[in-house]
Write a sequence for this structure.
């Protein structure tokens, strides 16, 4: 077991009485000084600090101290120049108050679960994480709903905020001790409002499905009609697909795209007049075109319907000012935070102020219990990143990269659903184009180190588990810093892999090229 321990000079420790270690370590005092001696301890680094109290410099060492078979709790506190270990009978005569300028206060619990890191306590999980890191580092992630978060987002996700229960909302919690939780959640809300020009924001939804379900239950009555996009035409499961429970609770009517691959607004208006929906829902998981929110809002107003936009896929492109923003126009807008927004996995609901109470009550206590505040803090970090000017350039590059893929796949003779892309993704009919099913293409490209997903195309005659299409996008590749030149190369490899989907040697050759490319765009060198 390894405990990271800051050790200060001049101090002497020689000890073997209370802790069984490879070295003898003990702390003792000589009048006004404590001297330190330790054998064979690994010195990580050292630095000098000037002590204004005494007017001298001291050298600090950071070392690793092996601890074996410790029982009970051991608390180590170091106050320069006095050190002591409590609970085992060794104490110093001096206190922090007498040496206020330089001190460290560290506490360790000798319970193995708390002392050990994951590498020692659960090597199986550590190995799985390591292997996944290697997969991400050495592969090309092209699933359009996936991205890579920053180290700052990872740090917030792994923070002590995960320890805190905080049912309720800012200033109105059902638990005590939430004052700092309120700060983190407040920052997330304020930053989201600034990003999207929103009147009200709820950052507590755990993911995309519950955020949409909360809106339905918050604003509708059971059995109400919702006019939403058909899944095979680019909609989402939560938009009323028959396999979902929501389709049993509400009456979903599904509109489709026209022959040109665009949302037929005349047909949508006719359906709205005929079915008189309580809500008109737009948004998608595979549709690659812009949405005319103002025109849809006018149709909704004509029939007295609430407007809802699910922008989970394009939230980052909207925040980066590269796609139309429905938030000032629609009544309710939902988005996940882990796709183009490049944040942690989670959801968010934005709405007009008049719907705020209904939405908040639907999320809690209506649907969820305690929010995941470590996740909410990570959302706040991601929103701060999205407010930086660099994020606008990132969003621009996502679309530029997608346009390169569009051009290349047109040249290769593939049928592009919806006629191309206005955003970050492409839906390609590989079956009619090359005689390869979506599953065959996905599996082959997996071998080649290129990750995307099989996907239904509009009115697909094939099954969802082996459809006609594949869906892929550019957010994750763009996060790594890849641009037009890399997109040209990757498109060539994708086409080669699809055509040679049964040639494993060819696929492995592509993978070798992929690995060489990814070495030029390291993902998390700090975690290696």
């Amino acid at each position: 077991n390894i405990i990271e321990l800051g050790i200060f000079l001049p101090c002497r420790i020689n000890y073997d009485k209370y802790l069984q270690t490879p070295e003898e370590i003990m702390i003792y005092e000589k009048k006004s000084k404590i001297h330190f001696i330790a054998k064979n301890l690994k010195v990580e680094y050292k630095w000098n600090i000037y002590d204004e109290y005494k007017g001298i410099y001291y050298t600090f060492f950071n070392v690793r101290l092996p601890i074996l078979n410790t029982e009970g709790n051991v608390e180590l506190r170091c106050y320069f120049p006095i050190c002591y270990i409590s609970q085992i009978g060794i104490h110093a005569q001096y206190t922090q108050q007498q040496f206020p300028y330089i001190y460290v206060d560290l506490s360790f619990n000798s319970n193995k679960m708390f002392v050990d890191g994951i590498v020692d306590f659960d090597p199986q999980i550590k190995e799985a994480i390591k292997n996944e890191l290697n997969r991400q580092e050495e592969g090309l992630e092209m699933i359009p709903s996936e991205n890579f978060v920053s180290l700052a987002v990872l740090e917030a996700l792994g923070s002590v905020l995960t320890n805190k229960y905080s049912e309720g909302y800012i200033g109105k919690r059902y638990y005590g001790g939430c004052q700092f939780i309120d700060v983190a959640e407040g920052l997330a809300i304020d930053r989201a409002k600034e990003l999207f020009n929103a009147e009200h924001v709820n950052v507590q939804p755990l993911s995309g499905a519950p955020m949409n379900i909360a809106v339905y239950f918050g604003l509708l009555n059971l059995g109400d009609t919702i006019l939403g996009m058909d899944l095979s035409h680019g909609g989402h499961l939560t938009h009323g697909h028959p396999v979902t429970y929501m389709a049993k609770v509400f009456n979903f009517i599904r509109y489709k795209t026209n022959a040109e691959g665009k949302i037929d607004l005349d047909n949508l208006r006719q359906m709205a007049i005929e079915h008189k929906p309580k809500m008109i829902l737009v948004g998608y998981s595979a549709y690659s075109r812009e949405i005319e929110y103002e025109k849809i809002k006018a149709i909704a107003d004509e029939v007295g319907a609430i407007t809802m936009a699910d922008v989970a896929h394009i939230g980052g492109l909207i925040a980066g000012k590269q796609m139309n923003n429905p938030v000032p126009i629609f009544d309710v807008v939902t988005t996940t935070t882990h796709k183009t927004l490049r944040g942690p996995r989670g959801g968010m609901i934005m709405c007009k102020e008049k719907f705020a109470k209904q939405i908040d009550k639907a999320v809690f206590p209506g649907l969820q219990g305690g929010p995941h505040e470590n996740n909410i803090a990570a959302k706040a970090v991601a929103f701060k990143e999205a407010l930086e000017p660099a994020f606008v350039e990132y969003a621009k590059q996502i679309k530029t990269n997608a346009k390169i893929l569009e051009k290349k796949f047109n040249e290769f003779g593939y049928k592009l659903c919806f006629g191309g892309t206005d955003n970050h993704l492409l839906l390609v009919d590989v079956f009619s184009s090359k005689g390869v099913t979506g599953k065959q293409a996905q599996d082959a490209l997996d071998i080649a180190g290129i990750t995307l997903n099989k996907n239904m195309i509009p009115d697909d005659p094939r099954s969802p588990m082996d459809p006609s299409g594949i869906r892929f996008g550019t957010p994750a590749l763009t996060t790594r810093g890849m641009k037009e030149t890399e997109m040209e190369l990757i498109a060539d490899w994708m086409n080669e892999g699809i055509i040679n989907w049964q040639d494993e040697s060819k696929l492995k050759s592509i993978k070798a090229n992929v690995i060489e490319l990814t070495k030029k765009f390291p993902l998390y060198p700090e975690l290696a």
The longest strand covers residues 56-66. The chain has a mean pLDDT of 82. The chain is about 35% helix and 20% strand. The CA atoms of residues 198 and 327 lie 6 Å apart.
